[in-house]
Amino acid sequence: MPALKVRRGKTFRLSKRYLAVMLAAIFSAAMCLPTYATAVSTAAAQRYTGVLPSGATWVADVPANYNGTILLFSHGYGPLTAQNQPRYAGDALQREGYAVLGSSYSGNSWWALANAVDDQFGALAALEQIIGESNQTYAIGESMGGLVSSLENERNTGQLDGVLTTCGLVAGAVNLLNYQLDGEYALNQLLEPQTDVKLVNFTDPADAAASAATLTAIAQRNSDTPQGRARIVLAAALLNAPKQLFGNPKPAPEDYPAQQAQQIKLLTSGLFNFIGPGRQQIEVAGGGNSSFTIGVHYLSRLRDSGYLEMVSNAYQAAGLNLRNDLATLERNADIKPNPRAIATLKATSQVSGRLTVPQLNIHTIDDHLVPVQQETWYSEQVSKVGSGRLLRQAYTETPGHCNFTSGELVVALRALINRVNSGRWGNTTDAAALNAEATATGVGPTAFVTYRPARLGGARLYPNLLTIQRD
Fold first, then answer.
1. Residue closest to 105 by CA, chosen among 127, 83, 130, 128
2. 2: Cβ–Cβ under 8 A, 6 or more apart, which residues?
């Protein structure tokens, strides 16, 4: 009989995590698919590794000063290799006494959302079979792993006490591919419509890489004229690209030429080399193309994104008519989605917003791979379903994707743990409070700022799947 666990602010209850461990062990035995684990000792920590029934591997480091809290880390998009903490964490988390754990995920695609949550919870159960049940467990997710951790929150049945996402792709796969397609389509259609560029339904990684190279070349060939530069800026806006990424100082809010130069550099220096192959892997996971251009009203799309004034400035300088170009995009838009792919990705890779435990999201404000505007979309979903009291978001004034310091990670985690233990957020996630905590405790530099992202442009699902299915 498991003991009753008491946590501050919670009622007495049998440990669901304990029962989950036992059920996982029984299930593995019944299926003759045992979970294998090994241990390696070092001076600083005990390392455990294992293989789950799904084929996913996992790795955990338990420090000598283990404080009873496990951090369940979900890694970002990339090879399915077990990772147990963000690259920028260094030894900061283990110095604090946390055990760090993560799985590789399993599946036939690097977009492993179909199995990631189960694999992560399976890794947690496997580790707790060895070291015993934790006092508390927190999920930490980075980039695509932020989406995994957010889904863990929704599917949590007692395994987790809280969730921290860092640069999380919290708007999900369907929205991601739609706004990326908008930018790629605009670049091709407005700059070189005579160049046949494959944008969806890739056959393999090489097919996607060839498309990415062509799009980059189109941007480069047209970046020397005012007209070409204006249309590249429009494509960047549809991609929700940041207005500052390279060098210092940061362009002023109304220094449109400097902002435009930043976006042009981004689109001519290899962004599509990430977007194209990523789309191919998501299409593998979804069973086809889930994104579309048909039926999109591109003037409204641009107006809602927060980029209209900057794009208008570029078009005016180039002597172009922005409305005419947007009308051209609408007139020639003919890319349709596979309804089954939308359904699959909605089931595996899209959040409902129904949180079970407190969640703190942190994001760099100039993120070129996972735009910070995804946080606005996510908070809207969470609020719609009545979970807003459980969510807080904080931002760092840093360009780049997941470009955090270990100090920012540590103080954000402390704020989340304080919320779980006290039952209230207070002002602990305010930028000033987070920076003050870092200064007072000497965990390293932080750059939290008060910030409110714009809305995410291009977030949409197809309104009439049956019509497309008949076509």
1. 83
2. 14, 15, 18, 19
